[in-house]
Structures are given as C-alpha cells and as structure tokens.
Design a protein that fits this description.
globular; 18 helices; mainly alpha; two-stranded antiparallel ribbon; 414 residues
C-alpha cells in the first residue's frame, strides 16, 4: 500500500512539473554510479585514463543537487534557473567602486611582485602584462578567492543530469586526463560551481590546450603557481588571436549624428574612418597612428546610457575568454588602471531601471516578430539586441538609445 501511494505521489509531482529534488534521490544516485561505469569509464579508458585514477576521482563522490540547470532522469526538462553571474547584471553594478579599486590596488602589487614572469610571457606571446593581470584579477582575485568545489562532483553531476550534459561529459573526461597526467591529485582538483579550474578558471579542455609551465618545473600548476597561471592566461589569449602591439580599445564620445545602431563586431571600419565621422577620444588625444590605420568597432554596452568605446580586434579576443562585453571591458579597463594610473570612465553609467531577463526576453521576441536579429531571446542585451532596439526606435520616430527600457515592453506589444 505504501509503495503504491509513494509511486502515485511521484507520478503526480512529475505531471505537475514539481522540482527535481522531489524525486527518489537514492535511485538517481544509483543511476549516476551506473552511468559512471557504463558511459564515462569506457571513454576515459580509451583516452588513456587508468582505473586507479578513475576510482580515485570518484571516491566518495555523490551528486550535487544544489547546482543549477539539473534535469534528473525521468523528470521533465527544467527551466534553467536565473543566471546570477555578474556579467549578466546591469552595467553600473559590474563596475562597482569596490570591484574596480580592489582589482586595481591588488593588481599593482602583483605587477611588482611578478614583474619578471609578466615580462617573460609578454615577450613570448605579445600579450601585455596588464591584460594578463586584468584577467587574473577578474577570474580569481589574483588567486585570493577560495575555489572550494570538488571538480569531479560538479562535472559528474552536470555530465549526468544537466541541460548541457554532453558538454560537461566531455569536460569530465578531460578532467580525468588532467589527473592521469599528474598535474593535480584528483581528490584535490577544485573548481567553480561550473567546473572551471584554478586561478585562470579554465575549463578542463582549455587546461589541456592552453595550460603552460611558467616556472620551468615541468608542470602546469594553475592552482598554486602564479608563474604558471600568468603563462597560461597569456598562452590562451595569444592562441585566440591577440594582436601584439595593438591596444584593446579607447573610451570615446559619439556625437548624436552617429547612430548607436552602428555597434557590433560585424560593422568594423578603420579607426580613422570613425574619427572622420566625429568620434573622438575622451582624453582629447588623437588615436595613435598605427591604431588609426587598423580596424575598430563601436561598442556601446549601455547604449546611450553609458560610456562608449572604439575597440580593436583584441577586445573580442578577451570575449573569447568570457562571452560578455562587460567582462572584456572590465579586464581592459583594470589593466589600464594598473599600468597607466587611469581613473574611471569619463561617462557615467545611467540608471536604466530595474529590468529582469524575462522583461528583456519579451522585448526580444517582439523584435524578432518584426524581423530583427536580436541574437536569440535569452534576456541578455547583447550588441544585436541593443542595435535592434535602436533600429526599431529610429523606424518609429523615437530617439535611438539602443538599450532596453521598461516602457518599451508595452510599446512593443509585450
């Protein structure tokens, strides 16, 4: 009788879309162990992982039910939880006083402390030390942020039952290869809640491709070695196309005569041509001659509600590290503050009101219905969404701001 009642309750929970945690966790844990043996172990073995490494990696490991975007076996697909990474918040919050000042002050100390390593990596890769410091500071607070998660628990959970299971299964096997190579003891391999490793926050596959030995000891230790961390970040950026000798970008003033809809990496032109349109550096200086000859792109991460920039291809190399305009902008800006003593951006981030991702997604779907390419209705105001808003505003006789605002939701029919 009890068994039938329990089965009925579970069936009703699934039918009503109740949270996955309501299911029989013990049964799912058993399925997880079966999946490790039947799916992960054969793949790992084929890629040179020993049985001893495999068993050490998963010794005592259970599923982490607190991770986001989980879809346990037998459950209906779950709606992904709201993304809480800072990259997806309002622009002004990302550049908070504490974040900027902390990353700058500690970065200057690290620049002095690791000057030799930074200079060596810059000679080898062409990536300036200040840029490496900007990435390092943003990813792990120069190694001062505690990284507490068990990498095999995180990757195992996400590989077994997440909305991106195939991707995380690949990363899990890559992590086993790292352990097999002896880079770190499997029980000591720590990661973020998303499975990113060490001070540079590399996913395991990126570790295998870009982790570098910066101190000459024969190992690539991104957990405890600052020299290896510096070399690894420089190697990653160089192999993603960093152009030695070019900057990442410049804060500029964009006159009203230049439409904010010209933003985007697919609308580049010579920086000299942008200047001919009336765009000027806020510093009052001319663009460096070698930069003026090169390609540049308009970047307005808050539309007309915040600072504007002409960025170089190197800006988009930084975005390869983290696909966020604000992330790449923060890294470049902090690097400039560390090396050149620069202050805040001249323009201030405007108050765009409290918008949820769901609000922006409604606007995106409405714009898509009107034929605009917003880059997907994901609730994130990327450059395609920003300029689509501007084009809609211009077409309807409105001043183009190129950024979502609460009143647009009803104006667009949302």
């Amino acid at each position: 009788m009890f068994h039938r009642l329990r089965l009925l309750v579970l069936t009703l929970m699934l039918a009503l879309g109740m949270p996955a945690v309501a299911q029989d966790r013990a049964a799912v844990e058993r399925q997880f162990r079966d999946w490790l043996e039947q799916t992960v172990w054969p793949r790992a073995r084929s890629e040179g992982v020993s049985r001893g490494t495999f068993e050490a990696a998963f010794s005592g490991v259970a599923l982490d039910w607190d991770l986001p975007d989980l879809v346990p076996p037998g459950s209906a697909a779950q709606t992904p939880k709201r993304q809480r990474q800072a990259e997806f918040g309002a622009p002004a919050k990302y550049f908070s006083r504490g974040s900027l000042d902390g990353a700058t002050s500690v970065g200057r100390r690290m620049a002095r402390q690791h000057a030799q390593s930074l200079a060596a990596v810059e000679r080898a890769t062409g990536v300036p030390g200040r840029i490496i410091l900007g990435v390092w500071g943003r990813e792990s607070g120069y190694g001062q942020v505690a990284i507490r998660h068990d990498a095999f628990r995180v990757l195992g959970t996400k590989g077994f039952m997440s909305t991106r299971a195939d991707y995380f299964t690949d990363e899990l096997v890559a992590a086993l290869r790292i352990a097999e190579a002896g880079h770190v003891d499997p029980r000591s391999m720590k990661s973020s809640w998303a499975g990113a490793l060490g001070q540079p926050q590399f996913m395991p596959s990126n570790f295998l491709s870009y982790a570098a030995d910066g101190n000459g000891d024969g190992q690539a230790d991104i957990w405890t070695s600052e020299a290896d961390t510096i070399a690894s970040i420089g190697t990653y950026l160089a192999r993603h196309g960093w152009q030695a000798g070019r900057d990442w970008g410049f804060e500029v003033r964009v006159p009203a005569s230049v439409s904010c809809t010209l933003e985007g990496p697919d609308q580049g032109r010579r920086i000299a041509d942008w200047a001919a349109m009336g765009i000027t550096r806020v510093s009052g200086k001319a663009f460096p001659e070698h930069e003026a000859r090169g390609e540049g792109f308009l970047l307005m991460p808050a539309g007309r509600h915040g600072p504007a920039f002409i960025v170089t291809p190197n800006f988009y190399v930084l975005k390869d590290y983290n696909m966020s305009d604000l992330y790449a902008l923060f890294v470049g800006h902090v690097g400039d503050r560390i090396e050149y003593g620069m202050g805040d951006f001249e323009a201030r981030w405007g108050d765009v009101g409290r918008l949820y991702r769901s609000d922006i997604a409604v606007m995106q779907r409405a714009l898509e219905a009107r034929g605009h390419d917003v880059g997907g209705a994901d609730g994130l105001p990327g450059f395609k969404t920003r300029r689509s808003i501007g084009r809609w505003q211009e077409a309807n006789g409105r001043p183009a701001t190129c950024f979502p605002e609460r009143a647009m939701k009803s104006a667009l029919g949302g």
